[in-house]
Amino acid sequence: MQELRERIVADGEVIGRDVLKVDSFLNHQIDPAFIQRMGREIAGRFAGEGVTKVLTVEASGIAVAAAVGLALGVPVVFAKKKQAVTQQGDLYSAEIFSFTRRESVHITVAPKYLRPEDVVLIVDDFLAHGEALSGLVKIVRQSGAKLAGAGIVIEKRFQRGGEALRAEGIRIESLAVIESMKAGVITFG
Ligand code: 5GP
C-alpha cells in the first residue's frame, strides 16, 4: 500500500537495528481515517473468504482489527494478555514471546467468542519473528474454527516470521513489507 510506505518513510523512526517506531499513526497516536483505509484494504484482500470473526491481540492490533471488522461487518475479538477476574472457566491460551517487551506473555480467549463454525481472519500491526501470529494461530486451532489467514500492517521480512508461517500454508497479506532497516534506511520489498 503506497500510502503506508510513504507514511513509514515520513514518520517512522528506526530504533536500533530492528524496531520501527510508528507512534504518530499506529502505536501511540492513531490516525483513524488512515486506519480505516488500511482496514478496508485488508478486508478487500480477504473478501469472499466467508470471514465471520476478526482476531487480534491487545493492544496495538485492536484499532486496525476494528477497522477490518467494520469493513467486513463482523465482530472483532482480541486475545487478552493478562487474565482478569472477569475471565473465568476454560480459556483458549498460548504463550508468546513479546518482541517489544522482551518477555513471555500468556494470551487468552474465551471459548464463547471463537466457535468451531467460525472463519477467522487474524489481524496485527506488525509481523516480526511470528511469535504473536503463531500464538493466535494456536488459539484458532484450539477453537476448531477455520483460519482464513492473516492481515498485517507492517511485515519486517528480515525477521523471517512470515516465511515460517507461510511455509505452514498460512495465507499472510501484509500492507507494507520491509526488507531491511540497515543504518536507519528503510528498504521495502
Ligand atoms: P513477532 O511476535 O512477530 O516477533 O512481533 C510482532 C509483535 O511485536 C506485534 O504484535 C507488535 O506489537 C510487536 N512488534 C514487532 N516488531 C515491532 C516494531 O518494529 N515496532 C513496533 N511498534 N512493534 C513491533
TrEMBL record:
GO MF terms held by the record: xanthine phosphoribosyltransferase activity
Record domain Phosphoribosyltransferase: where: 41-157
Question: Do the record's keywords include Metal-binding?
Answer: no
User: Quick one: which pathway?
Assistant: Purine metabolism; XMP biosynthesis via salvage pathway; XMP from xanthine: step 1/1
List keywords of the entry alphabetically: Cytoplasm, Glycosyltransferase, Purine salvage, Transferase
UniProt binding sites for xanthine: 20, 27, 156
Q: Carries keyword Transferase?
A: yes
**E.C. designation(s):** 2.4.2.22
Query: What is one Pfam family matched by this protein?
Result: Pribosyltran
Instruction: Write out the function statement from the record.
Output: Converts the preformed base xanthine, a product of nucleic acid breakdown, to xanthosine 5'-monophosphate (XMP), so it can be reused for RNA or DNA synthesis.
Name the record gives this protein: Xanthine phosphoribosyltransferase
Q: What is the organism lineage in this UniProt record?
A: Bacteria, Bacillati, Bacillota, Negativicutes, Acetonemataceae
